[in-house]
Design goal:
126 residues; alpha+beta; SMI1/KNR4-like; 6-stranded antiparallel sheet; 5 helices; 36% helix; globular
Amino acid sequence: MAASEAQVAEVEQYFGVRFPDDFRRFLLTRGMMGEFLGPARPYVAIYSVEEIIAVNQAGAIQDRLPGAIWIGGDGSREMLMYDFRQNQPSLVLLEIAAENWSAAIHQASSLTVLLAQLPQRGWLFG
């Protein structure tokens, strides 16, 4: 179910960020995702706006990974995160038990790029 502008703004305010425009548009139009993509068949999960704060709190994400916001994953042990330590937040993959940023694997510069590349290449692991 698509999110409302007020719901997106509430999550942004909670984290003190503004989500990239393409992620905002995704939340406002599609809302969430959980599916296999294209010939490479990677599974992609993107949480609904209602889930984002709760999963980040449950995983103590900001304590372990300052500047991270967990937005989804690969349906297994890998978390898809926005890395807000930089002005243009990118998307990285981290194992669910990661204690710090050292194991982050860059996936894409934006959600649009990630969703365009994943069907062909799958997730990058190392």
